[in-house]
Amino acid sequence: MDFDLQWLLVGLPVAFALGWLGSRLDLRQVRREHRESPKAYFKGLNLLLNEQQDKAIDAFIEAVQNDPDTTELHFALGNLFRRRGEFERAVRVHQHLLGRSDLGATERDRAQHALAQDFMKAGLFDRAEQCYKALEGTPFDTEARLALLNLYERSRDWRAAADTAAALERSGIGSFGTRIAHHWCELAQEADARGQGEEAASALQHARAAAPQAARPLMLAGQREVRAGRPAAALELWGEMRLRDPASFHLVAADYAQAALAAGKTDAARVVLTEAYEQNPDLALLRAVATLDGSTVAQSPRLLHQLQVKPTLSAAQALLARADGHWSAEETEALRAAVDKAAKPLQRYRCAACGFEAQRYFWQCPGCLGWDSFPPHHVEEL
């Protein structure tokens, strides 16, 4: 019994000493790793701030090799690859993160979101869609739904876009009514192109319900009535459009005049167009009134007023078309040709968001894909 007690008295201090020594060795190892890893990390960050992306990537790769378990280094490296357009390498980094069994739920959702962004930037919309859908119910749910909405609009999947926008609106994120109305208008035009009139009419009803003040559903509905041989119904729809969105009424001014002639409502249409012109002088409205009068805009008594109110090249071009003897034929033709050439670049619509210009009016900008970013007037009238 005495022999066992002596060994116990000797063994306890020895075991304590060995344990203390082992802990010190582990602590030194941890400290050394922490010194090495941040050094490479901050070196890469400094290079990135100095816009030396190639060297920054090399530094981050070195940091990842020294500490392969650090998720932040992987995220930094993957995002840097994406920014440089090296989408394949970015995908590999984020897929490697998702393949780790020790990754927490928060970091896994973050890696899934980063992977979806990689696929989106690479143009792999089907894979991006799958990744974004996998984020449903996660902290990235709202961001994923917004990204899906942009994805569906980019790929022209209007039905999915409308459903996604409606879900976002129900969740209380914001109002998407105008955007949803555009989606249904696109669906209506596609249905008309297929010859499915009832489906097109239903889509326009959904569009008007989504955004009662929107001009586009009324504009399209009126055009459908004209094609169906019901010009009077078209006039009613465009009249409602004028009340709801007066600034956009000039987009259908020419069609309004033609429908009035077909419906035998010239006098009433002249009153409407004249009132619209007095509220917002526009050359398109003058042309529509001239159509009702069986003349040209050059003969309009309001043309000089239009040129004075809005001294645009288009108005000058119309005025010069009325040669009254002050110009010789050659001088008039030369002046008209010069004005025509100068006016053409300005007779375009320009996106207020990205500056994209087009000869015809777009509800959705082909450049930045923004809705209602085109002011309803030519560049020269802004």
UniProtKB/TrEMBL annotation:
Query: What domain of life is recorded for the organism?
Result: Bacteria
Q: Which residues bind Fe cation?
A: 351, 354, 365, 368
Report the source organism. Ideonella azotifigens
Q: What does this protein do?
A: Modulates cellular lipopolysaccharide (LPS) levels by regulating LpxC, which is involved in lipid A biosynthesis. May act by modulating the proteolytic activity of FtsH towards LpxC. May also coordinate assembly of proteins involved in LPS synthesis at the plasma membrane.
Q: Which UniProt keywords apply?
A: Cell inner membrane, Cell membrane, Iron, Membrane, Metal-binding, Repeat, TPR repeat, Transmembrane, Transmembrane helix
Q: Which residues lie on this side of the membrane: Cytoplasmic?
A: 24-382
Does the keyword section mention Iron? yes
PANTHER family listed in its UniProt record = LIPOPOLYSACCHARIDE ASSEMBLY PROTEIN B, TPR REPEAT-CONTAINING PROTEIN PA4667
Q: What is its membrane topology? A: Single-pass membrane protein
- Does NAD show up as a keyword for this record? no
The UniProt record lists the LapB rubredoxin metal binding domain at 349-375
Query: Can you tell me which family this protein belongs to?
Result: Belongs to the LapB family.
- What is the recorded name of this protein? Lipopolysaccharide assembly protein B
What InterPro entries does this protein's entry cite? CellSynth/LPSAsmb/PSIAsmb, LapB, Rubredoxin_2, TPR-like_helical_dom_sf, TPR_rpt
